Amino acid sequence: MRHEVPILVPDSFLYAERDGARHTVSTSFEVDRIAAIPGGPQAHPSEEYGFDDLIAQGLPREEVDLEVVVNACRALGVEKAVAPPTFPIAVAERLWQSGIQVTSDRETFAARRRVKNEAELAGIRRAQRAAEAGMDAARDLLRRAEPNGSGLLVDGEPLTAERLKDAINGAFVAHRVVAEDFIVAPGAQGAVGHDLGSGPIAAGQSVVIDLWPKDPETACYADMTRTYVVGEPPEELAEYHRLVKAALDRALETTRAGVPAMEPFRAVCDLFQEAGYPTQLSKGPGEVLTSGFFHGLGHGVGLEVHEPPWLGRAPGDMVAGDVVTLEPGLYRQGFGGVRLEDLVLVTESGAENLTEYPYELRP
User: Fold this and answer.
1) Same domain membership, residue 49 and residue 156
2) Helix, strand, or coil here: 157?
3) Which of 44, 171, 177, 322 could form a disulfide with 130 if both were Cys (CB 3.0 to 4.6 A apart)?
């Protein structure tokens, strides 16, 4: 909905296309705003499709909204339609009951959004700069950390994942982006998928920081990850970092339009397997990996932080205009790990790296 109507509309509304004509049906509160979008859809108020009469009948508001959708579809001549898989089931049921056939088609809507327009790219770049500012704020605390027994102190207070998150949030506010969640995972937490991280940080311990802020103007995300160690890194983490950076370089070299999305993933898996680490391509059927490289290489980023294409074992080619992450990682359960993630724009000639940030393991 945000792709087709590129402004924030807080309340539910109907978007429909028929014979090339685009329409919205919304509360009258939103009509002028939608109508003002250059090249946007025709904006209709709910009153045009019986809203007032339905309210006068004493129907619950939810019933009124469903009947307005049915009335609008009939008036627009919609007899059958395709919708995204996330289309509300209550609306679909009411349309079916009214003789209007609705079926889901994931690819139709994923394909519309994959090639980012200039406004979306600008929003992604703003969000990426904010992510880098958040990483700066975290690195500042890590650089100033001093050993204190089993932990670290900054300005006389224990250094924790929560303190790093507060600093990152401050940078996000300053850059006018929003982030409901992000990862600051010390030690063993960094080897547990999407564990958001908590608690004290120790010297010699990996700290995986994965940030995905959203640009409010376009509702587009960025995504980046870096891993740090305060003090001297253990040899195992240093080896992880060396291999993961080499894998990221290999993935960047392999990413371009027309290439199967699995190809850079396979290149990374080959590198890790040659070094003796298990991957999704080397494991047995049904085996669940908890160490090595146990996830895909990346995913599309835009109006969702995880969207097509998928850079893993799924089929399909990359196309010019995709924005994708490249995020190889190595982990050991109960110990920690290293992940490095860049955000890139896929072009005909290769990958334009949208991430402008160093990779050093020590902050």
Assistant:
1) no
2) strand
3) 177
CA distance 28 to 25: 9
> 346 has which bridge partners?
351
Which residues are within 8 A (CB) of 242 and not within 5 positions of it... i.e. 6 or more apart? none
CA distance 76 to 72: 6
Six token digits for residue 77:
């001549």
| Cβ neighbour number for residue 192 with a 10 Å cutoff | 17
Q: How many domains does the chain have?
A: 2
**DSSP type of residue 279:** B
DSSP class per residue in 69-109: HHHHHHHHT-SEEEE-TTS-HHHHHHHHHTT-EEEE-HHHH
3-class DSSP state of 280? coil
Question: Is residue 1 in a domain?
Answer: no
Q: How many CB atoms lie within 10 A of CB 162?
A: 14
- Identify the sign of the CA torsion 104, 107, 111, 114: positive
pLDDT digits (tens, 9 = 90+) for 24-70: 999 999 999 999 999 999 999 999 999 999 999 999 999 999 999 99
Supply the pTM of this predicted model: 0.94
Residue 359 lies in a domain: no
339-356 per-position pLDDT tens digit: 999 999 999 999 999 999
- Same-domain pairing of 95 and 136: no
The single residue listed with the structure tokens 């969640």 is 181
Question: Which CATH number fits the domain that encloses residue 237?
Answer: 3.90.230.10
Structural domain harbouring 235: 114-353
Residue 6 lies in a domain: no
CA atoms within 13 A of residue 29's CA, in its CB half-sphere: 7
**Residue 266 CB coordination number (10 Å):** 17
| Residue 2 placed within a domain | no
